[in-house]
Recover the amino acids of this structure.
């Protein structure tokens, strides 16, 4: 049987201290057994390393920042589509998902398939709505509150005890041990990610993540839990190990069944000393450590592509426990001409 | 006292808890003790075996044995912790 070659657009090509998932997703797609790929990278900045990884990314186009709105993004994607005949796009950033969800139907008309959460699912799981989400679906979450200005800080002391977690609406989180630190984190994070800022109860315990894939009808297609073994000062896993925790898998199945989640996701969990699990965050996209899932037997990006194409995908039933990922950085030597090409023409 | 069923112990002395993802390195005496625990030996038998193999007094061996068991228990590696982490 002839294996089809798919043209797949992938974002998240950055690999800084808070790396994007793009490069890992591409590695997974290149190892897919059910199709071959031609990868079209979508970048926001000229120094995203994935742009220059020519063994992984065939061609890269710069796309406008989400703050530019959906019209300008659609215009750019139409231009790219004329040249590349994309079959699939996999967006990998929280901040860009809203635009891509909005454009899903229009892109489908252009022949581009995606497999994303619905707008309701996307909105419902935001950090701002986490308390309501927990109550609605019967999942334990830490107490959270969204604040829009520094005046609200003084009322926090009666509702929360120190330390508190101060979070940006898309990314970044810092621990505050006093009011001064809340102010400092508020200013720093809001300057980068905007408002509101989310104040969250601090849960003492051990951090775990689960990545997986929901079919949009309540079924779990894939789920792999991981314990962070090496954590950077940004709180990112730089090393991790696959584990066999039935409570985490149960929580994942419950999340997917009750929300009918459509697409890839990452659950951020905290287990306290009593063994109680709290759901800290739901990231509505695949994580940067997604290649571990491939390494333990669940090629989630491949399954996501097949679901996007409307194909039937058999749920994964097992994975290898005790397999580790260890991330590393690597200096690439790049000709200045390549940098010029992407910086000036927005294509490479 | 028994180790939890799913705990993996390598010959080189690496102990891995697949539920939590934690791993521990055990020294050669620890490996001997773990092997004897797995084989169902009693505390008395284990202390006798250690005293036969190593030059030491019984009080020290018994105290160290208790400390070692305490460490295993503290790290949720013994059977009575099964419910909490499972």
């Amino acid at each position: 049987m002839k294996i089809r070659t798919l043209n797949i657009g992938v974002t998240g090509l950055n690999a800084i201290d808070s790396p994007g998932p793009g490069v890992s997703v591409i590695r997974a797609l290149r190892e897919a057994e059910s199709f071959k790929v031609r990868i079209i990278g979508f970048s926001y900045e000229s120094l995203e390393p994935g742009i220059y990884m020519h063994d992984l990314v065939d061609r890269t186009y710069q796309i406008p920042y989400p703050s530019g709105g959906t019209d300008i993004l659609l215009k750019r994607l139409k231009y790219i589509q004329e040249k590349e005949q994309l079959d699939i796009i996999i967006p990998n950033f929280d901040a860009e998902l809203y635009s891509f969800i909005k454009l899903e139907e229009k892109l489908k008309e252009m022949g581009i398939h995606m497999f994303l959460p619905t707008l309701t699912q996307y909105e419902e799981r935001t950090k701002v709505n986490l308390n309501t989400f927990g109550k609605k679906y019967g999942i334990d979450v830490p107490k959270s509150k969204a604040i829009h200005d520094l005046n609200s800080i003084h009322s926090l002391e009666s509702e929360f005890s120190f330390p508190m977690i101060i979070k940006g609406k898309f990314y970044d989180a810092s621990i505050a041990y006093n009011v001064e630190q809340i102010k400092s984190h508020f200013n720093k994070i809001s300057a980068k990610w905007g408002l509101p800022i989310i104040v969250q109860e601090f849960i003492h315990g051990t951090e775990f993540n689960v990545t997986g894939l929901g079919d949009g009808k309540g079924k779990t297609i894939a789920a792999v839990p991981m314990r962070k073994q090496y954590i950077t000062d940004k709180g990112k896993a730089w090393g991790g190990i696959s584990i066999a925790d039935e409570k985490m898998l149960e929580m994942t199945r419950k999340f997917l069944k009750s929300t009918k989640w459509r697409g890839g996701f990452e659950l951020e969990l905290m287990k306290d000393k009593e063994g109680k699990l709290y759901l800290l965050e739901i990231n509505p996209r695949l994580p940067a450590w997604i290649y571990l899932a491939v390494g333990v037997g669940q090629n989630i990006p491949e399954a996501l592509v097949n679901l996007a194409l409307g194909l039937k995908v058999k749920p994964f039933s097992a994975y290898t426990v005790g397999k580790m990922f260890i991330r590393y950085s690597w200096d690439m030597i790049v000709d200045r001409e390549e940098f010029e090409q992407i910086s000036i023409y927005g294509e490479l | 006292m028994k180790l939890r069923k799913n705990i993996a112990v390598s010959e080189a002395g690496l102990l891995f808890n697949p539920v939590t993802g934690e791993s521990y390195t055990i020294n050669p005496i620890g490996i001997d003790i773990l092997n004897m625990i797995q084989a169902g030996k009693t505390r008395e038998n284990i202390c006798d075996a250690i005293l036969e193999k190593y030059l030491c007094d019984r009080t020290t061996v018994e105290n160290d044995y208790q400390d070692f068991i305490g460490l295993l228990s503290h790290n949720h590696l013994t059977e009575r912790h099964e419910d909490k982490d499972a």
